[in-house]
Specification:
Blueprint lengths: L6 H28 L19 E3 H18 L5 H18 L8 E3 L2 H24 L11 H9 L2 E2 L7 H7 L2 H32 L6 H8 L1 H4 L2 H12 L5 H8 L8 H4 L1 H28 L4 H9 L4 H12 L1 H16 L3 H7 L6 H11 L3 H25 L10
Antiparallel strand pairs: 1-2, 1-3
Helix pairs in contact: 1-19, 2-3, 2-5, 3-4, 4-5, 6-19, 7-13, 7-16, 10-17, 13-16, 13-17, 16-19, 18-19
């Protein structure tokens, strides 16, 4: 029967729980919240989470003040009658924007106040257009700038950007998302499958008791020890269409039509990323499998040898069944890691082929659309959770052993 945690034991792990909550759970919860909003940091109308409308009074005053200042320059281009009309317009602008002077925060706005502000903006725009039409031949300094100020004043009204599940509806109709999902799935399945076969072979070799086995194990782990960014740069030079040796050899043996096809075609880009990933992470797979091999009792192999069992029979009847827990754990770890691949492809070929991680980065960071980007991240989270559920609950992978 499991023992209940005492209060002192809970206090002992409380700092760890706080760290996990701040650095793990909070970002996850934030991603779920952002998916419900049209949250875009590069647009002042959507750069905060608004459940109701608001008014950017500071920006409204700033644009109105610019209009007042620019009108002072326009007086120089008209006659006395026009100057009198401009001064009257200046005074009207000053009187209207003065209550908003010094206000720096967004503030709630009623429907009536919004109508009044919009009417003011419409009147100012109409009077400016009439002025410029009346003096069409005059050399105004700010004729082209005024429309931008009017447009910015209209943007001071912040509409509610709560969307509910709309981002997910857009996601399910996004062909680019499903293309990124397909690329991610192919990359994960192919790379992990090849790494399992090669890693098993390496693990079997490293598990043998032979002279110099320590040096062999150390050398085999070198690719895994190299940082991903560094290995991506190395392979980028090897794939270079003008001087890369790998691209040259593949072209010579007929695998590709020309050396530059390694990084400049869809198939070549995927193959390039797969080859680089397999080279780097196969040692990691081998290390996980080696740990499982070393838990198998050597007497089983001695008994099988006495009974006349061959190499392949021993492998499939003894090694492979006993290695099932280690294989499942190795596959789980590598699939979760491969499904989130970003840095290798981003550095190797500037994000081609596009995976889910790269697509989420593009929408969230490069384009500033945190709402839709978060929806992609949540979709990735669901995929990763399904992978973990499949291996742990269905396949029976024991990630954390029970100690009794």
């Amino acid at each position: 029967m499991a023992k209940r945690m005492t209060f002192n034991q809970f206090l002992f792990i409380l700092p760890l729980l706080l760290i996990v909550g701040v650095f793990s759970l909070y970002p996850i919860a934030s991603s779920f919240v952002y998916t419900a909003f049209d949250y875009r940091i590069n647009d002042q109308r959507f750069n905060r989470l608004n459940l109701r409308g608001s008014f950017n009074a500071g920006l409204f005053y700033q644009n109105g003040d610019y209009i007042d200042f620019y009108l002072g320059d326009e007086i120089l281009a008209v006659d006395a009658e026009g100057a009198e009309a401009i001064e009257a317009l200046q005074q009207r602008v000053r009187d209207f924007i003065t209550p908003y002077k010094g206000v720096t925060q967004h503030q709630p706005i009623s429907g009536g106040e919004a109508d009044e502000l919009n009417a003011f903006i419409d009147d100012i725009e109409s009077e400016l257009n009439a002025l410029y039409s009346r003096y069409a031949g005059a050399g105004f300094y700010h004729r082209e700038n005024m429309p931008y100020l009017i447009e910015d004043m209209r943007k001071c009204f912040i509409e509610p950007n709560f969307m509910g599940l709309e981002n997910f509806r857009l996601l399910f109709n996004d062909a680019r998302f499903f293309r990124a999902l397909r690329n991610t799935t192919w990359f994960t399945v192919i790379s992990v499958s090849i790494e399992l076969v090669l890693g098993m072979g390496m693990a079997l070799i490293m598990n043998r008791a032979m002279r110099g086995i320590g040096l062999i194990r150390t050398s085999a782990l070198v690719p895994w020890a190299i940082p991903t960014a560094v290995s991506a740069i190395i392979w980028k030079y090897l794939y270079d269409g003008t001087s890369g040796i790998i691209a040259y050899l593949f072209a010579q043996i007929g695998l590709i039509d020309a050396p530059n096809m390694m990084l400049n075609s869809a198939g070549g880009a995927m193959a390039s990323a797969l080859l680089a990933d397999i080279w780097k992470t196969t040692p990691y797979m081998a290390l996980l499998l080696l740990a499982g091999l070393q838990t198998i009792d050597r007497e089983l192999y001695e008994s099988a040898s006495i009974d006349g069992s061959g190499v392949f029979s021993t492998f499939f009847r003894i090694t492979l069944p006993l290695m099932k827990p280690s294989i499942l754990v190795a596959l789980l770890f590598r699939m979760l890691d491969a499904f989130r691949v970003y840095d290798l492809i981003a550095i190797l070929n500037s994000g081609i082929p596009e995976t889910l991680s790269i697509y989420s980065y593009t929408r969230m960071i490069a384009q500033g659309n945190y709402g839709y980007g978060s929806a992609i991240v949540v979709a990735m989270f669901v995929c990763v959770a399904l992978i973990a559920f499949f291996f742990v609950k269905i396949m029976g992978a024991e990630v954390v052993g029970d100690e009794g």
